[in-house]
Amino acid sequence: MQQQYILRIDCPDEKGLVHKITGVLYHNDLNVMRTDEFVDRESGYFFMRTEFAGDTDENKIVSGLIGILPSRANISLNKISKKNIIILATKEHHCLGDLLIRHHFNELNANILCVISNHEILHSLTSKFDIPFHYISHDNKSREEHETEVLKLIDTYQPDFLVLAKYMRVLTAQFSNHFPNRIINIHHSFLPAFIGASPYRQAYQRGVKIIGATAHIVNENLDEGPIIAQSVIPVDHTENATDMARLGRDVEKIVLAKALKLIFEDRVFVKDNKTVIFE
Amino acid sequence: MQQQYILRIDCPDEKGLVHKITGVLYHNDLNVMRTDEFVDRESGYFFMRTEFAGDTDENKIVSGLIGILPSRANISLNKISKKNIIILATKEHHCLGDLLIRHHFNELNANILCVISNHEILHSLTSKFDIPFHYISHDNKSREEHETEVLKLIDTYQPDFLVLAKYMRVLTAQFSNHFPNRIINIHHSFLPAFIGASPYRQAYQRGVKIIGATAHIVNENLDEGPIIAQSVIPVDHTENATDMARLGRDVEKIVLAKALKLIFEDRVFVKDNKTVIFE
Amino acid sequence: MQQQYILRIDCPDEKGLVHKITGVLYHNDLNVMRTDEFVDRESGYFFMRTEFAGDTDENKIVSGLIGILPSRANISLNKISKKNIIILATKEHHCLGDLLIRHHFNELNANILCVISNHEILHSLTSKFDIPFHYISHDNKSREEHETEVLKLIDTYQPDFLVLAKYMRVLTAQFSNHFPNRIINIHHSFLPAFIGASPYRQAYQRGVKIIGATAHIVNENLDEGPIIAQSVIPVDHTENATDMARLGRDVEKIVLAKALKLIFEDRVFVKDNKTVIFE
Amino acid sequence: MQQQYILRIDCPDEKGLVHKITGVLYHNDLNVMRTDEFVDRESGYFFMRTEFAGDTDENKIVSGLIGILPSRANISLNKISKKNIIILATKEHHCLGDLLIRHHFNELNANILCVISNHEILHSLTSKFDIPFHYISHDNKSREEHETEVLKLIDTYQPDFLVLAKYMRVLTAQFSNHFPNRIINIHHSFLPAFIGASPYRQAYQRGVKIIGATAHIVNENLDEGPIIAQSVIPVDHTENATDMARLGRDVEKIVLAKALKLIFEDRVFVKDNKTVIFE
């Protein structure tokens, strides 16, 4: 079987880009399995993702692409491989449990290097699946002190992505900037509704008829990063805030898993705080 | 065929309410077709809606109910009948057109008394269905002057409800307080997200993956009244704000029609800026 | 805290049922927390479910009810308690894994007595959660022989319900009749579409744009029992049968869990091969 | 403004197709606005749709494409323009009414040439919008006789597409073969569930928890043509067949309108009784 690659390109749009890019692949005798491209008309920006297979010299491909692309183009060419990830969690088990099961049965397209938590409660669950669990309490520590400890531990693992699986700590900009576009969070509301704390309580008090969850990339502003996926379910007057939280858990875990699949398969581009996603 | 009634009761909860209320109906030999009740545990408040048929003295029923209910109970007993409504619109035709067709084929459970608009553009559509159309321009008028004219016209019709079918004027508190819980609006976003102007533009800029619409009762705070119904559709990076607005129109018209059905069938209770709805 | 009960009644409808039933509860000084009732107009049949609390003599309540209900009424009065269940599975882990996690964190409203499978593959997963796993191979056995072995094992546990969590064996009528309305199955299609084997393959070949899953009660006809819950997700031409199966797994596990919650909370009535569900 | 075109190509897949096709466009100095392509891996078949603008010789483009495509390729190159359509209906107004309103406000991307019906009932509605209405009764006529009359009338209009907007007549294979892939139907169920007559009655009797509608291309087998779009809504035990039909009408009209938009914008390819759709 041939080596499989994912090529991602984004750059200002200009005439003939698809023709030229596919030409580089064609003339290197590569087998394109799937190509997606999109031009954002408002910004005049071009996005392309191609899966191909072939025995090739990666440098030659990239050199060929540099030769025909605008100078400001972003090019990434990677062998298809599993991503290495660290999961951060707090007390709630539903997202972590779902990810551990998917991982155990090889459905996550990622290696979970470890789980880090500011509470001990999920230690037992994590250990069932033979994943290292690190408890780093935030008691009697400033936010910065706690993050420094977490960061130090993360650095020993060198993960590709951090997954916040109901990690109930607000991150400093310093922390999030350390992993640009590499932290994925699940927020338990239909953003931008109910930013911040206790979104189900807020939703209950507002009397909404639909609740939801949002998986997004974390940037330095809380709950304002680029959105990857959202999903909703109906509620009515018979559900109080606790019921909504219970119902919402199933939405949260499914949306997070869906977003991670898109991220881990290199399907997500980030531009101007929004995502372009080739599903 | 016997006369059909809808009985609505809400009051602080206490033991035996259902037993006592149904007793009044039973001992008056009425045929209950459907009963819904709900007790809000947080507020300790009781809601009940009963459809029944029978030849009866309405005063006798109400007297009987007053005798067994808490003194603060709200009781309404009405013959099932069509509501009289006025539609206010501006330039967009999709909600108005949908309501006119439903009305023409007797599906709206309401009589449209007239359409009032601050633009002429929907005159022709309205006239096709033989509904009076009143154009009241807001040009060179203060908000209050314009509303005074509109109010004066409305008063000549004595409607049960006002329906804002994409009426793009902000109402004063004075106007909305004139019709407590009797104005229904369709807002083109998934409230409380994107309150105010240009919600599709806001949604596009935020990069959400789902957009929606909200039908709500109008109170004195813009877009903050009790929500009746909400619905959503998925979007992605290929849709710009104009596309979202186009897609959203189908959601808006269906949600508005659904909410109106609930309102016109006396299924909606309002309490603490939220709705209890017996669908 | 007082003892909590669930009262379920179904019978031919007649005037005054709600008044009389609630009278029995009221005169026994019980605290009704929630009542749902429904009259099916086509069949003239009455259904009621009441949650109440109080220190009472159960026999006295039931005697009181028998005195005022039609002779053909079904009455059940039970203390609120966890159900005892056995899960049957085959090779797929997603439904079982989801249930094991919910059970482990006390969210299932049931005790999983054991897992029975015709394959060994899910043994390790089950054991992680300290649940007994019984492997009963069907190799070289007739359907009846295999079922007899399974039945014998089940009988040692005396479960309230059997949950078929992707159990890929067709049950004989003899087996299913052994547990009337007590076997819950998840079928990986939107019934009645794609009955039988390989529904995702069938869905792919038909070119549907939505796929789904159905949780239902098992009766003697395969895939034709009363439906409890259904859910769907969109698909398009880019998904082949394998993709659909992958996407469908998340729907299956959520729908099954939702249906089980309804069943375990005694919210589901079965009548004429359909369900009446008080959510 | 330059002339806008839609180019559609489908053929057996081979290496370099995208490169070669986009090369023809690039070397003719055309502005590509959007390209979508898909390769069906199971059948090894290639689909591509491109929107471009430019002042060009259409024959030159097609010749260029023929020179580089497999001999069995289907190529169509059309100026973007409105389609000419005829709507066939029977008694139900909701789909027709919705299309008439969209057409009146120039949202349908089609010219409605006329409405043909086997009943008079929709005459008045159609006339409000100044569209010719032809009543062709089927009384005392064989299916073939009736169809012959209808066909004769249709031929005087030379439509691009026929839209069956709740046309409750079964078409003969002879009729449908007369318009290959050019007849669009809305079926009031979630196909392939509930094929044939009275699908809401069937759905009610089966006790499903979701109902739906399917827009599809008509081929010679009733309800078995390629599916374009489907949508669903939840129902429960409180809805009887009549309620389901009422609820379903809103789904039907929205799904039909969505499918027509896709068809009229040349976004739908048909292959092996399935559709590939570039939304």
Secondary-structure blueprint of this entry?
The structure is a homotetramer of 279-residue chains.
Chain A: E1 4-12, H1 17-27, E2 31-40, E3 45-53, H2 58-68, E4 74-79, E5 83-89, H3 94-104, E6 110-117, H4 123-128, E7 133-135, H5 143-157, E8 161-164, H6 173-177, E9 183-187, H7 199-206, E10 210-217, E11 227-234, H8 241-264, E12 268-271, E13 274-277
Parallel strand pairs in A: 5-6, 5-8, 6-7, 8-9
Antiparallel strand pairs in A: 1-3, 1-4, 2-3, 9-10, 10-11, 12-13
Helix pairs in contact in A: 1-2, 3-8, 7-8
Average pLDDT for all residues of chain A: 96
Distance between the termini of chain A: 24 Å
Number of strands of chain A: 13
N-to-C order of helices and strands of chain A:
EHEEHEEHEHEHEHEHEEHEE
What does this entry look like structurally?
- 4 copies of one chain form a homotetramer.
- With 279 residues, chain A is an alpha/beta fold.
- The first copy, chain A, has 2 domains: 4-79, ACT domain (Alpha-Beta Plaits), CATH 3.30.70.260; 83-277, Formyl transferase, N-terminal domain (Rossmann fold), CATH 3.40.50.170.
- In chain A, 33% of the residues lie in helices and 30% in strands.
- In chain A, strands 7-6-5-8-9-10-11 form a 7-stranded mixed sheet, with helices on both faces. Chain A has a 4-stranded antiparallel sheet with strand order 2-3-1-4, with helices on one face. A two-stranded antiparallel sheet of chain A has the order 12-13.
- In chain A, α1 (17-27) runs antiparallel to α2.
- The longest helix of chain A has 24 residues, at 241-264.
- Chains A and B meet through β11 and β13 of A and β11 and β13 of B.
